[in-house]
Amino acid sequence: MTKQMMLCLALLSFPLAGKANPETDEREAVLALMEQAFAAVASRDPDDMRAIQLAEGTSLSFRPHPNGIPGELEMRIATNEALVADDVDDGHRFTEHWTADPVVLIRGPIAVVWGEYEFHIDGKFSHCGVDSADLVKVEGNWKIANWMWTVEKEGCPTAP
Predict the structure, then answer these.
(1) Angle at Cα 37 formed by Cα 149 and Cα 66, nearest 5°?
(2) Angstrom distance (rounded) from CA 14 to CA 6
(3) Torsion angle of C-alpha atoms 33, 109, 61, 91, degrees rounded to 10
């Protein structure tokens, strides 16, 4: 390749290097909101959660059946506001984190985030599962409309 061709290629790519990528920016904004959600879970402050979700949305979880029936799951469903209002800070410290890069799909004012997570209580492994969140862009800000998750004790990346 001649020096002239290399210079032309470099000059052609230069303007592109300075341009923002809207898709990347939106993905980062969506993931930042999910990190805020994890921080809100950790803070146990209901106002932290209210700030990032729609009160009218739903929270839905699937967990092992409380009677221990093999293969049976219990489904819990509530509005986001009801779940926040019912959460009592019992002094335990919660932490949640992704165990792999979540899938993010965005089109216009809606997004979906789906990823595997782990949950710890007071620094000890509690469970893992999948978080799936539906997000909407309201007045320029992403909010969680609905989310679902599984509560699993087996097959977790760092389970004891």
Answers:
(1) 30
(2) 12
(3) 30
Q: What single-letter amino acid sits at 92?
A: H
Tell me the backbone φ, ψ of residue 15, rounded to 5 degrees.
-60, -30
Full-prediction pTM beyond 0.90?
A: no
Report the pLDDT value the prediction gives residue 86, as an integer from 0 to 100. 82
Residues of the chain with pLDDT under 70: 1-21, 160
The fold adopted by the segment(s) 22-150 is Nuclear Transport Factor 2; Chain: A, (3.10.450)
In this structure, are residues 132 and 145 in contact, taking their beta carbons and an 8 Å threshold? no
Of the candidates 42, 66, 45, the residue with the CA atom closest to the CA atom of residue 121: 42
* pLDDT at 35 (0 to 100): 97
Mean pLDDT across the chain, nearest whole number?
Answer: 87
Which residue pairs from 11-18 have beta carbons closer than 8 angstroms and sit at least 24 positions apart in sequence?
A: none
SS (H, E, C) 25-88: HHHHHHHHHHHHHHHHHHHCCHHHHHCCECCCCEEEEEEECCCCCCCCEEEEEEEHHHHHHHCC
